[in-house]
Amino acid sequence: MELFSEHLKKEHLLSKIDARIKLIVVFTLLVMVLSYKGISFPLIIAILCLFLCLMMRVPFRVVILRFSEPMFIASVLLLLKFFFSGEEALFSINILGLKIVGHKDGLIEGLKISSRIIGAVSLLAVLGFATPFTEFMAGLSWFKVPKPFVELLMLTYRYIFVLFEDAGVIYNAQRNRLGYSGIKKGLRSFGTLTGALIIRAFEHSQKTSLAMLQRGYTGDMPMLRQRPFKTAEVTTAILFVFVMGIIWKI
Description:
The structure is a single chain. By secondary structure, this protein is mostly helical. The protein has two domains: about 1-130 and about 225-250, no CATH class; about 145-220, no CATH class. Helix content is about 70%, strand content about 5%. The protein contains eight helices and two strands. Strands 1-2 form a two-stranded antiparallel sheet. Strand 1 and strand 2 form a beta hairpin. Helix 6 (about 145-175) crosses helix 7.
């Protein structure tokens, strides 16, 4: 539960900033990262985000695990671009009669795509570490994001923890009974675990729907009241985006 719990969001400077301002800044920087034609700006954003994660005292193991999947995807795209895309050959080798060619232009294009992935994921990770989920949802609601989407996100977030605990209980029970002692047994046990989670998710959805209706739910879920914008926060955000815009333009 350590990777998903709220206890990672400790008291720090970013946690005190209005969630709406953080959403605007992150969205603006995300557009800059995805539209940048080179490599340097997304890497600068990634380094800055890593520094912010360390400033927020996020455990380094948690940071590595959060970035492991996007780093794997970026590495695969880089290799695919390097070996299977491009026209300017950088080197060529023969391995067991198979000719492998590395392309310079493919490598450059792969680095551009990989840097954008890393920069974008870094922004979203910092936003997640710095913003409690309830404030994040309240910010989306203030931006007039469709209410059904926000409510679905809130319910999904709530029951991720419930299903995660159920999965842990089932997995430990299977492992104690040597359910993962071999590949065949492991696949069968994993299929059983997946099916049990699907059934439990369906049961939880029915119970939640019935409980909400009995408590007078009419389709309108109340959100946090937004406080007025602070001049200092708005000014700082504008200056920060302006500086990053200058770097992006360079």
